[in-house]
Amino acid sequence: MSCSYADGLSKYENKGICGLPEVHDQEEDLTIKVIQLVQWIRESKHVVVHTGAGISTSAGIPDFRGPNGVWTLEEQGEKPQINISFDSAIPTKTHMAIAEFVKLGLIHFVVSQNVDGLHLRSGLNPEKFCELHGNMFLEKCKQCQRLFIRGKASVTVGQKCTNQACLWRKPNGRLCRGKLHDTILDWEDELPEKDYELADAHSRAADLSLCLGTTLQIVPSGGLPLLTKKNGGRLVICNLQPTNCDQSADVIIHDYIDNLIEKIAAHLGVSIPMYCPEKDPTLKAKSSLVEYSPLRHLPPRHLLKHKSVLLSNVLPRPDKPPKRKFEKGHQEGKDETKYQRTKCKVTDKKMIETTQGYSGSKTNFNVKGLTSVSSVTKKEPTQSIYNSTKESNLNLNKSSDEETIPPVMVDQNTSENTNAVKREATLE
User: Fold this and answer.
1) Which of 32, 125, 144, 174 has the least CB density, counted as fewest CB within 10 Å?
2) pLDDT-derived band at 410, boundaries 50, 70, 90
3) Catalytic residue among 133, 181, 202, 254
4) What's the gap between Cα 56 and its chain centre?
5) Which pLDDT belongs to residue 416?
């Protein structure tokens, strides 16, 4: 359950802005926005979906910063009344719809901040998504680095040893002898490097990023959708609360995620399948651990080239990305030491300002001349894909007029050369 997960994390004061008021779009505005979003989905060559805790609330798993979120109530000395265990929760309509959209080629990659494992359990193609903060149903061997699916949710948090022996056998037939650890990140733990590289590359290559159920307050994952905008793509955000990226979004939709997904599926003519336990890999792992080794690829090369993005910035690099550093911040009337770990103060301030006098929906596009959904045809999915290990060996030359984008992992405010990507909460 999310409460036990939150309790298992180390003490961390700056958990972001919690309890912001929720906004609901009028039905007429919502319909217009859905039609525009569906049109963009049909037209786009590479659609990436970023998911947060808000897509799992209908499964009975509380979010963190909503009005009844875990950390919102924690500030009041309370805990959520509805809190189902991770083992008992089943994928929602949103999880099942995303899996179906990926199967049909309407969505090309999914980047998730969730640890509940519902994307995995929904039957979503494991080659088409990455999880930046871990998975309650995955364990990793620290010796051979292999992942294994477990039948029950982990009881530990923070990449701790589960005392389970690795089942992988070497070519000579001997067991690995390594110990398995949970994959759940604690505050300031390193993000899984391969997953972050995939998330970074697909976010840059996307011509449409869709954010579902996240306030985008955790970095670096919360900044990934902005890479789409930086490279000329569109950004659509669906969340009941304001987010850190609202001012960069092309369309902001305020509605329950399941309701939005049902409307999108109806316009696309897609039937949302029911959860099928037979396709749930965690149930197959009830008796014994199952190795988890999806072959995931970087996005098609031409999608990166046409946006003048240097492949050297998104391909695996020999050195791990440097750490993100905290910057000391000041807040009037507050103790400086309490806010020593402040990050992205300007962004959060803007987010708060958007809530003042916020009484209506926001539409960031011109409705005039809106193309009918029925008249738009879906372009074929992207062409050939390439393997990151092969591409990393290429000798890539850049032309003089090519735009140079610094790697997103580099903190330009520090000169230290460190070797980890940190997960941090942002706060005013």
Assistant:
1) 174
2) very low
3) 133
4) 13
5) 42
Q: Nearest 10 degrees: CA dihedral of 133, 209, 280, 59? A: 80
pLDDT digits (tens, 9 = 90+) for 202-249: 999 999 999 999 999 998 999 999 999 999 999 999 999 999 899 999
Residue bearing tokens 């569906």:
38
Buried b (16+ CB within 10 A) or exposed e, 232-264: ebbbbbbbbbbbbbbeebbbbbbbbbbebbbbb
Q: Is 330 a catalytic residue?
A: no
Positive or negative, the Cα torsion across 177, 179, 183, 185?
negative
Phi and psi angles of residue 266, each rounded to the nearest 5 degrees, phi first = -65, -45
**Cβ atoms 16, 427 nearer than 8 A:** yes
pLDDT at site 78:
86
